[in-house]
């Protein structure tokens, strides 16, 4: 199933898509030149939004779950990318331990672990799963006739291992599938094994505003290369730090910054003849799972937040208090699948696109956060030419649209690389 773009494509945006598709060879060379001196994050997922006049990343996750939602037909892409990534980091690697989220009982998350395990096994690695929680006991789960076993992690001589049937399983590398929202794990300090990605990429340390600061740089370089308006692929944003959502002075500052951003967006809408109502997403500057997010169309809405919305903005995953927010331009999602709003999510391993899916929500509008309870996932129906455009077809045909998504996602990936590696 392929979503329908329910809007007339803006002429400037059409120019952008055509430039990307018709100059794909030069763009791939541009990316290669950027990756020569830049290490890529081991894996990532990038949430995109397509409004028909603008396409942009809105979130980049460096500890992605959801591998079970990818099209299994393209698992060879993931296996090949994993093999290349492991060879670069640890050529002699033969074993790996995946560290999952600590307390998840979500069957879909376990399916994600099964999919990840399968990818690594097919890349030639022995794989086990070990939990960071010091109180964790070995647990077996039956997931649709497949068994998944999670062991407690142990540590000796600066090496992490698990005990399986009385035998130590000591890996060459550790894969974090835990976003470390609750803090930097002391257990992993001073270990000699390679940790993928580095713990510094965890949400205890990482900030969305810092990511988009680097994305500003990358988007500017790319749009200068194509000679087109940077705004077409880059959302405006601002931040407010050391805040308390229940403090009126903090709310006034957020309202003032929101007013300034909305004015800038309206100027762009006027320039390009866009008749949509601009809006902003205000969200916690750290964390994921769609927590700590509100949407506004007018600055006055900030001063009128009710208790429910203030509570929603006050804490995120693992009960972490929100003390900094990012105020980000909202991107209308104009792609409709089964009469529901959808947004593409693109997955990468190393600097390669390996697939993606559409996140769909039947009870959300095009200006709302879709990463919330009730969402559904549909694997992106990649065609054979998905990794390169089809020059003989319309720029909005599926393989070309997906190629454009892959380009924008890789720009976000490049920004993430600069963010965490410098």
From TrEMBL:
> Quick check: keyword Translocase in the entry?
no
Q: Which domain of life is it from?
A: Bacteria
UniProt cross-references to InterPro entries, sorted A to Z: GshA, GshA_N
Enzyme Commission number: 6.3.2.2
GO molecular function terms noted in the UniProt entry: glutamate-cysteine ligase activity
Could you tell me which Gene3D superfamilies the record lists for this protein?
A: Glutamate-cysteine ligase, N-terminal domain (3.40.50.11280)
Q: Which Pfam families match?
A: GshA
Going by the record, the broad EC class of this enzyme is ligase
Q: Which NCBIfam families match?
A: gshA_ferroox
The name this protein goes by in its record: Glutamate--cysteine ligase
Q: Which organism is it from?
A: beta proteobacterium KB13
